[in-house]
């Protein structure tokens, strides 16, 4: 098997894994909407359990899906461009780093606080005002992170034509323009 053929198969494998990672990240976001709608109508205990489920999904599906997307994206970039990475890839990197930074510094702490306040609310029998504040913060920054992740998709599909270095063409793969 030739080196170019191996590269093509490796690239296609990474691409499939990349889309699986994206599906996990985006799919869990839709699962959050369903969980939130179902648990908001229930008791405070059900609401707290819904927050726990959302936290579990974030740890077991969203985080690994995002990591898989980042790692496979790096692998595809290295296979396709080597050391001559075009500018649009750096724009994707900037969006991803911004999203990751917000997720770690704003969303995760707000979600942790919301889970804690949901359980305290259930124990006390009434909604605490801190719960609303942490839910609002996590919704705001979570929406920004989700938007940043979604903005990388059209950037990857569009692939600006103003790049300096042509892509290394892989046999039987569409040319990059």
Overall description:
- The structure is a single chain.
- By secondary structure, the chain is mainly alpha-helical.
- The protein has one domain.
- It is elongated and about 65 Å long.
- The two termini are 28 Å apart.
Total of DSSP H or I helical runs spanning 4+ residues:
4
Radius of gyration: 20 Å
Tell me what portion of residues adopts beta-strand conformation: under 5%
The total domain count is 1
Shape estimate: elongated
User: Kindly state the mean pLDDT as a whole number?
Assistant: 87
Ranges with pLDDT <50 over ≥5 residues?
Answer: none
**Termini separation (Å)?**
28 Å
Number of strands: 0
Order of helices and strands: HHHH
Structural class: mainly alpha
Helix content: over 70%
How many strands, what sense, and barrel or not for the largest sheet?
none
Overview in brief:
The protein is mostly helical.
Characteristic terms for this protein:
177 residues; mainly alpha; 81% helix; elongated
What's the helix and strand layout?
Elements: H1 3-40, H2 44-81, H3 87-124, H4 129-158
